[in-house]
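Slide 14.
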Amino acid sequence: MKLNPLFLSGLVALGGAVSAQAQAVYSINTVGYVNLDIPAGFSMISNPLDAGDNTIGNVLTGSIPNGTTVYKFDAGAGSYTEINTYFNGSWLPSAATTLAPGEGVFINAPSAFSITFSGEVMQGELSNPLPAGYSIVSSQVPQEGTLQSLGYTGNNGDTVYQFNGTSYVINTYFNGSFLPSEPNIGIGEAFFVNRVSAGSWDRNFSTDQ
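Slide 15: predicted structure.
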């Protein structure tokens, strides 16, 4: 099943709230939790903490409404190759789809609910590979901020697409700035980036910062 990465081939018709909201709490030993509010309808989410086992069967748990569906985009294939739906405590057909820090997915929820992520805050020299073309990505650390303040370095022509529940907010990198405005990325938010060339999202992060 192929879905257009920008227009979702009608997936966005159901709409949804503007964005997921999150609160982060972490301790000096880097272990903590993030509460993420998932709106009804479509949104793009990420896992902001390293749980060790970063499969959806382990990190997307709790009072999840039956019928909630997760779509993971495969940059190489240019399509959503892993689509799993929650039913009676299980993700079907597979709970093994990964949602590690730095990755992201589309989620479609029949009603609003909350997820609590728990795990370690990633620290040190972090690197998130970014392929050329479209991919869904996120910050590897639970921090809100402008994309460049979170360590993202762009190429001229790189374009970021943030989904707001019904459409995309689009900003393109050119000569050190995003136009028309710098994207602000929330904790637990994922987004599409269309890269001119492959690279990586590199950052040296410590909870002491």
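Speaker note: The first helix runs from residue 56 to 59.
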